[in-house]
Write a structure and sequence with these properties.
Blueprint (H helix, E strand, L loop, with lengths): L1 H21 L37 E3 L14 H13 L1 H21 L5 E13 L10 E16 L4 H67 L5 H15 L1 H19 L23 E3 L2 H4 L4 H22 L4 E12 L10 E11 L7 H67 L5 H35 L17
Parallel strand pairs: 1-4
Antiparallel strand pairs: 2-3, 3-5, 5-6
Length: 492
């Protein structure tokens, strides 16, 4: 037996030497990040509005980075308090953090393959030696106990473990960027709802003022009708104007309620248990400048682009895993076992058995399955590469759209200001004419209605500019990397 073991020893040493030499190899492609674009604009239209380098009211600062709390650019103190509550209590963020922690644990599990497996085995049994038909040849039975540790180690010959760890890290990075995307969606949605609340409340106040004027005008027309200076059709016209303006109230109240409820959910509260802050529309200001990252910077900061890149990295590692399966595997096992027929003497008066074994396996043919798995991994990588490129293109398009919208909003603001000034002047002159008895009340109603509509349109345009600004900041990635305390961590 000893001679046989000695003959096997050189073979094991050769196998171990080969395994040691191959253990440092890692097959499959090494991941290379896609190159960042080398252009500096988001739109090729050469008209002043489309160059995205200046704006009538808020110049674009191309190449600058958003502040971590970009919502403070609107200079509304109540926003900061609400956003802090949302970041701390939003349940979507809680779920995203837990999912990230789960993904990080897979890195630990993948790394464990790099280390030997150590275990302690124990067994107990009863054996019978010999058998016969009389008392002299009848078999004898006895107990058999064994206890001892064993160690096994699988050599990472082709780097399958290394690629598995690489893939686990890439998947954890994907969850890291998914958390960042959830954070960006949360903050932009909260600011959007706050602006909606402020705009709706302003429209509601303007409509209520219009209704009060309608009620005064109806009273004047009714008095004129009683003394015979106005026709009944004038009274009906004034009543119709009043009722038409009143019909706007339910929709505005509904819009206000929906925004309040949505904001409560974003901060992790039930609508009945959370008091919505009062957002004064007049306190919202457009930023003095609009920080806009270059396209080459955008691909390194938008969570959805980085998430697509992480998945691309994971698919690249999957190619290496599939390739490694084409190579042989080698496992070394060592054991040190104590054996005895008496349990209480297992560790004191027992025989000791040392064992070593080397197991190797190399699948040479499996009906083309392994080669197919590798080809499928390459196909998956190419598909994800196309998804990554499409994600980048969509991001550029969103930034270009937002910049164009803000430019067009500036023109809309100029036109709505002109309309408001004209209607204000017309209303002032009409009131003076009515007081002097030179015009009737219906002309006054028309002037007041034009002024109210111009005022409401001016508020809507201002609100749209603010919303488009939020859209731009979200399209730029919101500079989530600079925000501390949201539980962003890509490794474990």
């Amino acid at each position: 037996m000893n001679k046989h073991r000695n003959k096997l020893a050189p073979t094991k040493l050769v196998l171990l030497a080969i395994a040691a030499g191959l253990a440092g190899c890692t097959v499959g492609p090494d991941f290379v990040r896609p190159a960042a674009p080398n252009f500096s604009s988001y739109d090729n239209d050469q008209t002043p509005a489309a160059t995205s380098t200046q704006n009538a009211t808020s110049p674009v600062a191309l190449g600058q980075t958003l502040p971590a709390q970009w919502w403070e650019l609107f200079r509304t103190p109540a926003l900061t308090e609400v956003l802090n509550q949302a970041i701390g209590a939003n349940q979507t963020l809680v779920a995203a953090r837990a999912t990230l922690a789960q993904a990080q644990e897979t890195i630990v599990q993948a790394r464990s393959t790099w280390y030997p497996t150590v275990s302690i085995g124990a067994s107990a049994g009863r054996s019978i030696i010999g058998s016969g038909t009389n008392q002299f040849t009848q078999g004898q039975s006895f107990n058999q106990f064994s206890l001892g540790p064993s160690v096994s180690y699988t050599f990472d010959i082709a780097g399958q473990t290394a690629r598995t760890v690489e893939q686990a890290k890439a998947n954890a990075e994907n969850q890291h960027y998914q958390l960042a995307a959830a954070y960006l969606t949360l903050t932009s949605s909260a600011v959007t709802q706050a602006i909606t609340l402020a705009v709706t409340q302003k429209l509601l106040t303007t409509t209520e003022e219009l209704i009060r004027n309608d009620e005064k005008n109806l009273e004047l027309v009714q008095k004129s009708f009683l003394i015979g200076t106005a026709a009944q059709t004038d009274v009906l016209t004034a009543q119709s104007q009043l009722e038409n303006d009143r019909t706007q109230l339910p929709a505005l109240h509904q819009q206000l309620s929906v925004a309040r409820h949505a904001l409560a959910v974003l901060v992790g509260q039930a609508p009945s248990q959370w008091h919505t802050p009062d957002f004064d529309f007049d306190t919202f200001k457009m930023p003095d400048t609009l920080p806009v990252s270059l396209p080459s910077e955008l691909v390194r900061q938008r969570p959805d682009i980085l998430s697509a890149e992480a998945l691309l990295h994971a698919d690249s590692a999957a190619i290496g895993i599939a390739t490694a399966q084409l190579y042989p595997s080698l496992t070394l096992s060592l054991s040190d076992t104590y054996q005895s027929t008496i349990l209480n003497q297992l560790l004191t008066n027992a025989s000791k058995a040392l064992g070593a074994s080397t197991d190797g396996n190399w699948t040479l043919f499996q009906g083309g399955s392994l080669q197919s798995q590798k080809r499928a991994a390459v196909d998956a990588y190419n598909a994800q590469l196309a998804i990554y490129r499409q994600t980048v293109l969509v991001a550029f398009g969103q930034v270009a759209d937002a910049l164009r919208a803000i430019d067009n909003d500036a023109e809309s603001l100029r036109l709505s200001q002109n309309a408001l000034q004209i209607s204000t002047t017309s209303l002032r002159l009409q009131r003076a004419s009515y007081s002097a008895g030179k015009s009737n009340v219906l002309q006054l109603i028309t002037a007041e209605n034009s002024y109210a509509q111009a005022s409401m349109n001016y508020v809507r345009v201002q609100g749209q500019r603010l919303q488009d600004c939020v859209t731009l900041f979200a399209a730029l990635g919101g500079n989530w990397q600079a925000k501390e305390g949201i539980g962003l961590s890509a490794d474990k």
